[in-house]
Every structure is written in structure tokens, then in C-alpha cells.
Design brief:
This protein is an alpha/beta fold. The protein has 9 helices and 8 strands.
């Protein structure tokens, strides 16, 4: 269930606001921000037809840098809010954004259930391997032996293998992009937005201020487009293999997609015969008599 796409309507200026960008020069947020707007424009969505949900973090400041319906949530908690919004009104595409810190530390439980539930929404992971907003604090995805402001000797814990973790949950859509490749991100976002269920999109991005290992140039020299090399996104085992194996180079593109699995909403038996959405069924109820019991 999607809003009918319109032609010739929205353009990049449709999403413009006067709010100045405050991200550091060279931050990958600029590329992700631009690519998402382009994807929405190319799909024909007007700003009032979509909902953008942001977690806390540097990327979260994008909530007021895009003219649309936006929500800025609590740290690590954007996924349950976005899922609720999507289920309340499946006619509105919902896109959630989260950082690697919030999504795989405070919010890792929400990530698990979002994937296993196959909520009909898109999630974009801003993966810069640190908490940029708290000035270079290491996250669960910070690489081994990488000095960070809060751990100058490197992290004592093991780095969480995020892609292997996601694939262990049997997802229906997994993609990975690079913030320096706008064209590829646009393609990924457009496909994710039209996916039947939960679309997990991992965007590797540079953090020029705090991550001095995974720089823009380093990422540029290590990523490759798996789709252009003939990768079949329907092959789960191969998708997992190339997603996890980052020894010599890092695969990007649409890594896995399965459209045969119903979304969470489609599996809700009480909703299957409904022609209205939950938000359309909300009614005003007089609770004055009920409240007298508490006086």
C-alpha cells in the first residue's frame, strides 16, 4: 500500500529549508542527505507524502534540514516509533535514520525485532564507526586497534560483526552503500523505498573529525559495486558471504532482496479485511464519566 506516485511534481527545491547545515566539512551526512532527497524526487514523492524519522546523533540534525514531515526521537529508539507510524498508516512511506552507536548499542534490541518482524519501512544506518556527536566516543562498530577520544588504546571489546548479525536474523532486504557515491545511494534508496517489508540500508560514511582510519579516500579505494560485477541479490548465502567478507574490499549495492515474505502488516489477521488505516479509525470519545471515578 503506497501513495500513487506523481510525475512532474516535486523537485529538489521542494525539500529545501533555510536551516543551515552544521555538519563538519567532508561529513558523509551531506551525501546521504542529498541522495535521499534525490531518491524521493525521482520516485515522485512530495514532502507531505512521506515521514522521515531521525535518531539522536550528528545525522539526527537532518530533522530540520529537510522540508518534510520529520520526527527527532530518543537515542536508540527511532525504530519502534517509525514502525508504529508505518503500521498506523501504511499509505505513507516511513524512513528511519540511525547511527551505528545508537542502533547497535542502546537500540540493538529494536533492530533485532524490526528485522524479524519485517516492518514495512526503510532504515538507513549512518555507519561512521563512532559516536560523532559525543566527540569521537567508540561505538560497538568501531574497528579494532583504532584509537578514539574515549579509548586512546583502542576498544577492549570485540567489534560487533554487524552484517553477519543482520543476516542471522533472516532479513528480506540488505543493501550497503558509500556516502561518496551519490548515484549508487539514490538507486539503493529507491529500491529500498519500494520494498515489501523492512529494508536495511548500511551506508559507510566518512567522519573527517573523529574517524581517521575509514576516511573518504580509504573507503573510496576499498568499496566495489557488487551488482555491476554480476551479484545475484536473490542468493542469500552468497549475499551473506560477500557482505561479511571485508578482508580485501567491501561489497556495496543491493546485496539481498526477497519480495516473497509478507510484511508485518500483511500478517495481521484483524487488518486483512480492513479498507481503512488505523489513523482513519481514530474517533473522539467522551471519557468524562470515566474520569469521575478518579475524582
Amino acid at each position: 500500500m503506497r501513495i500513487p506516485l506523481q510525475t512532474g511534481g516535486p523537485n529538489m527545491h521542494s525539500y529545501y529549508t533555510d536551516t543551515p547545515c552544521t555538519w563538519c566539512d567532508g561529513c558523509g551526512d551531506y551525501g546521504i542527505w542529498t541522495a535521499m532527497k534525490r531518491a524521493l524526487v525521482e520516485l515522485g514523492y512530495h514532502p507531505w507524502q512521506i515521514l522521515l524519522c531521525y535518531d539522536v546523533g550528528c545525522h539526527g540534525n537532518g530533522a530540520d534540514k529537510t522540508r518534510a514531515y520529520t520526527f527527532h526521537g530518543l537515542h536508540g529508539r527511532v525504530l519502534p516509533f517509525a514502525a508504529g507510524a508505518s503500521l498506523a498508516n501504511p499509505n505513507v512511506p516511513v524512513i528511519a535514520f540511525g547511527g551505528d552507536g545508537a542502533s547497535f548499542s542502546e537500540g540493538v534490541g529494536h533492530m533485532v525485532h524490526s528485522v524479524r518482524s519485517n516492518y514495512p519501512m526503510t532504515f538507513v544506518l549512518h555507519n561512521n564507526a563512532n559516536y560523532g556527536l559525543t566527540t569521537g566516543q567508540a561505538s560497538s562498530l568501531t574497528w579494532q586497534d583504532q584509537p578514539m577520544n574515549s579509548s586512546p588504546n583502542g576498544i577492549p571489546e570485540r567489534t560487533l560483526p554487524s552484517m553477519d548479525f543482520i543476516f542471522s536474523l533472516e532479513p528480506t532486504f540488505v543493501a550497503r552503500g558509500f556516502s561518496g557515491n551519490i548515484e549508487q545511494m539514490v538507486r539503493i534508496f529507491k529500491t529500498a523505498l519500494q520494498h515489501r517489508g523492512f529494508a536495511y540500508v548500511d551506508i559507510l560514511q566518512a567522519c573527517p573529525t573523529y574517524n581517521h582510519l575509514a576516511t573518504h579516500d580509504w573507503l573510496l579505494s576499498h568499496v566495489y559495486d557488487a551488482n555491476s560485477e554480476g551479484h545475484d541479490p536473490s542468493n542469500f548465502e552468497e549475499a551473506r558471504r560477500i557482505a561479511v567478507d571485508t578482508t580485501d574490499r567491501i561489497s556495496t549495492g543491493i546485496l539481498y532482496q526477497n519480495e516473497d515474505i509478507p510484511s508485518f502488516y500483511e500478517r495481521l489477521i484483524p487488518r486483512q479485511q480492513r479498507k481503512t488505516t488505523a489513523v482513519e479509525e481514530v474517533e473522539r470519545t467522551d471519557v468524562s464519566e470515566l474520569m469521575k471515578e478518579f475524582v
